[in-house]
Fold:
Amino acid sequence: MEETPPVHRYQDGELIFEEGSPGEEVYVVQSGAVEISKIVGGKTVVIEWVPANGVFGELGFLAGSIRTATARAAGVTAVQIIDQKHLAQEFEGLSETFQSILKSLALRLKRTSEHVYESRQCKRIPKSYFLTFQDQKSLRKSYTGNICDEGLLIKTSSPLAKGERFPLKLELPGDPDPIQIGCEVVWSRAESDDPVRRPMGMGVKFVQISEMDRQRLRDSLED
Structure:
């Protein structure tokens, strides 16, 4: 006899899953509602409200990726949780062609979401500056993929985890004194199916930089 997926109950504002966590279950709202939000430019932006009978979390399962957003209960909410084992059994019952279609749609939606919600308050400029940053083990050298006075993209095949903070030294062309910046990882990508438009690396925001150094960076970007 097939087991019925369990129903969990959440209080208002209670976390269901967090952006960046593993995406192994799909959720069906039995009652109440769920708020879906994403961190954009260091701020929480609500992108969707899932009502009763609505489904969420399916992108992580189909695309085989981490959660791209955070889910919280909006009011007292009951949610049915369909685990990976149950989903895999149902998914494997589909034809290979239909499985491929669903995976393709999920990946396309994931790319579209990343493109929309990676918008920034400042316009990133595609410039390559050399830099050195500190991880937990050693100093690492790399370069920027794009940059503005509030953050940058570091191209690396071994990015740090989302939310991690670290110091960085940025070398400006023709300037002997590197800028020292405290950074936080906003997103991290260790794999990519489109390395040209979505390169491996990590997007970081500046959390500690002097106004003098920020102006030095602005002046350099205008050259």
